[in-house]
Design a protein that fits this description.
Elements (H helix, E strand, L loop, with lengths): L18 E4 L2 H11 L4 H18 L1 H4 L2 E4 L14 E5 L9
Parallel strand pairs: 1-2
Antiparallel strand pairs: 2-3
Amino acid sequence: MDGVFSLRNELVDYYDLRIWFSCPQDIRVSRLLSRGDTPQAEIDAWIPMEERYHAVHEPEKSADLVIDASNNLSPDGDFKSLRVTYWSPPDTPQKD
């Protein structure tokens, strides 16, 4: 299961492994704008919904694996710039 709102509180127990890609809002917005297929008005409407989701559901806290995706990936798909910031294999106690 993949999706921006997929780690909602009512869904997290249905997953065997929960992965969260963490990235600051300013970088996410910059990436959206640089793709050229998302109008600023759509981004402006999206951000408040995303902020509410983060505040209510705290997806990073329910993830088994958190990856810092703030660095740019290389054009050839080299994932070396991604950094694991948290890893707790499933069936182990969750972090606070």
